[in-house]
């Protein structure tokens, strides 16, 4: 086998492995989150536990030399990180509350405005003027959201939808803040993920106390509750297993940048996003007995269609640099590069731990 053939085979294997990893990880995190949030009365403490597990894994990897982490917790450094940490804490909290109050299959609908909000905030803060086709894609996604919320006859939680909208807006703002905060850690997505997990855990614990969850935490840890009817897991076992699954997968997705596999393209991302959306719907039906009406299926399909159209248009724009006009800041109107991958996967996976940090850092190159 020639060297070129070997490289091509390695590239295909790398692409398949990368796509499969993110597909499995994203679905596992959403389903594990829903499994726990359906039974627990302490959603913020659950999130805190996830972050602590990720921090412990970071420190363990640092101790045995797999990764090297910075330990600069000086006041000036923390002040520079504060906006990102605040958005991280509230964004993760709202995302968990969304999943607690809505079905797993409806989660991507409730958070369906991530893409339109991201395009809007990029225009407001980065002066990234979207093309008419990008605006059309945002319109399709928004239409899918309104179909699912207002035209489907299935009862939904207004509280869950509100949390989903707030979570989407914070996710969009988060993407802008990440671009600026990366300078604080010299462009390292891994370091940013480490600080994000560690400082978010510290910032979240006071919210656990202030929200009144501590009595529920004490009952969970020391109440000795038995497994509910039809389940083989006690509430504590469900909580611990769910925390372990989401904490470990969140950590793995955070350090995935160490592999330096820049092999996924907009097309593979587009396909994997669509597959994730479909699988999340069917898994919700199978695991949690979600009811998928024609209206809900139409909503999900419309959101996925708009997201796919957005990704395709961004890919086409990246192939025609001459069509990208510089903004007043001197940069291209789409930011640092013509193709900027907006976190469409947040529609399925949510913004958990360092996952989003990793993807936004890599948005400077086509994936």
UniProtKB/TrEMBL annotation:
Ranges of biased composition (kind: Basic residues): 356-367
GO cellular component, one term: membrane
Region described as Disordered: spans on this chain: 342-367
Pfam families recorded: TPT
Keyword field contains Transmembrane: yes
Keywords: Membrane, Transmembrane, Transmembrane helix
Ranges that cross the membrane: 12-32, 44-69, 81-99, 132-151, 157-177, 189-210, 239-261
Domain Sugar phosphate transporter: 19-310
Membrane topology summary: Multi-pass membrane protein
Subcellular location: Membrane
Chief place where the protein resides: membrane
InterPro entries reported for this sequence: EmrE-like, Sugar_P_trans_dom, TPT_transporter
Name of the protein this chain belongs to: Sugar phosphate transporter domain-containing protein
Organism annotation: Jaapia argillacea MUCL 33604
